[in-house]
């Protein structure tokens, strides 16, 4: 299998600049100001939290922590503190360092307690951007150290975001040499909304199955008869033993 075929489309089509993000205007306005504060992005899966964090970190030395796998306090005491304490030079200039704490709601209580002091200790040289799905799992004394931004959409925002999702999925279909009927496009996006990542995963599942012209029937059938195949394909693609871009 070639590298291009191994590549997850969610990474291939991950937004690289702020203008590519599909988020409400209230979020875009804040992101355009840069990393002026520590941020905590929370909300539904696949709504752009991690992509936003990575784009904000562009141009800065940054450390990415997947908190679902690095949950212990040693990560804070060693890895994060060491990164923040070293001199930061990029292109000959001293730059603010960024620590991305992805899936932050999965860390231990000791991790949270240690992080409070670390954020304060390095406030002159580093900023922290955390993401989570379950805001209620984040203690108040941690929330207060971040500007907390909800990535869940209001009813008014949903209409515009839905339109943008439809455009994005249609554009991906064109780029991959696929066709999708109008009704099928609407049904696919609405079934997975607001999880754009999941929608793109399903689209790649069609492609892997050899479906290059997607109909409404395909959308209905895929979620039934093809589900096991879909899971198998993406379990293989996401295997840590495979060499693909992550």
- Cα shape: elongated
The biggest beta sheet reads:
5 strands, parallel
Task: Tell me the fraction of residues in β-strands, as a range.
Answer: 5-15%
Low-confidence stretches: 240-246
Helix tally equals 12
Q: What is the C-alpha radius of gyration, as a whole number of Å?
A: 20 Å
Report how far apart the termini are. Answer: 17 Å
| Mean pLDDT over the full residue set | 89
Order of the strands making up the biggest sheet: 2-5-6-1-7
Question: What share of the residues lie within helices?
Answer: 40-55%
- Secondary structure: number of strands: 9
Helix and strand pattern: HHHEHEHEEEHEHEHEHHEHH
Tell me the structural class. Answer: alpha/beta
Tell me what you see in this structure.
- This protein is of the alpha/beta class.
- The protein is built from twelve helices and nine strands.
- It has helices spanning 3-6, 9-12, 25-31, 49-57, 73-85, 109-121, 140-143, 155-175, 182-192, 196-209, 216-222, 227-237, and strands at 39-42, 62-66, 89-90, 93-94, 97-102, 126-132, 147-150, 179-180, 213-214.
- The strands form three sheets. A five-stranded parallel sheet has the order 2-5-6-1-7, with helices on both faces.
- It is elongated.
- The two termini are 17 Å apart.
- Residues 240-246 have low confidence and may be disordered.
Give the helix/strand layout.
Layout: H1 3-6, H2 9-12, H3 25-31, E1 39-42, H4 49-57, E2 62-66, H5 73-85, E3 89-90, E4 93-94, E5 97-102, H6 109-121, E6 126-132, H7 140-143, E7 147-150, H8 155-175, E8 179-180, H9 182-192, H10 196-209, E9 213-214, H11 216-222, H12 227-237
Parallel strand pairs: 1-6, 1-7, 2-5, 5-6, 8-9
Antiparallel strand pairs: 3-4
Helix pairs in contact: 5-6, 8-9, 8-10, 9-11, 10-12
């Amino acid at each position: 299998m070639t590298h291009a075929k191994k590549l997850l489309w969610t990474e291939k089509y991950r937004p690289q600049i702020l203008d590519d993000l599909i988020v409400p205007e209230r979020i875009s306005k804040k992101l355009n100001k840069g990393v002026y504060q520590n941020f905590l992005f929370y909300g539904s899966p696949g709504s752009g939290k991690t992509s936003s964090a990575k784009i904000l970190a562009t141009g800065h030395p940054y450390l990415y922590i997947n908190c679902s796998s690095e949950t212990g306090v040693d990560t804070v005491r060693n890895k994060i503190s060491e990164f923040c304490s070293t001199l930061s030079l990029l292109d000959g200039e001293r730059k603010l360092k960024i620590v991305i704490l992805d899936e932050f709601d999965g860390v231990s209580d000791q991790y949270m307690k240690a992080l409070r002091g670390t954020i304060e200790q390095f406030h002159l040289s580093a900023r922290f951007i955390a993401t989570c799905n379950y805001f209620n799992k984040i203690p108040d004394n941690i929330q207060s150290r971040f500007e907390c931004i909800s990535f869940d959409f209001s009813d008014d925002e949903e209409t515009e975001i839905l339109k943008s999702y439809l455009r994005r999925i249609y554009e991906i279909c064109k780029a991959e040499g696929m066709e999708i009927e109008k009704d099928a496009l609407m049904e696919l996006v609405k079934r997975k909304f607001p999880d754009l990542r999941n929608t793109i995963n399903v689209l790649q599942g069609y492609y892997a199955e050899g479906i290059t012209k997607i109909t409404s029937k395909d959308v209905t059938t895929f979620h039934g008869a093809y589900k096991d195949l879909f899971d198998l394909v993406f379990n293989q693609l996401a295997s840590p033993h495979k060499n693909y871009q992550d």
